[in-house]
Amino acid sequence: MRALLFLKRYWYLPLLIVGLVALFFILKGRKAPEEIVKRIKKELDAIKAGTDAHEVLINEGAEAATKHVKEKYQAKQEALDEKQKAKVAKLENDPEALANYLDRL
After folding, report:
1. At what angle do helices 33-60 and 62-72 cross, to 10 degrees?
2. 38 and 16 within one domain
């Protein structure tokens, strides 16, 4: 009976505690701004890589664009596992997609 009387008089205290706990979990789940900026920068770099490959494709042709992309990302290609190498082999005909894929790794 005393607990009900306490809740009736001070109803806002349990509500405040539940609200603070919910706020803690909401804020804990948010990513830090630095992580968001890094992710956006990585996506912008991937878009730029695709654009560069497209410009080479327009100016010099598909073979030159693929060669340009492979030269640019040679270090990344050497560190790939078998599954990723198969994906790269599948994307060799599309230099823009290849550049985007390699830049996102």
Report:
1. 140
2. no
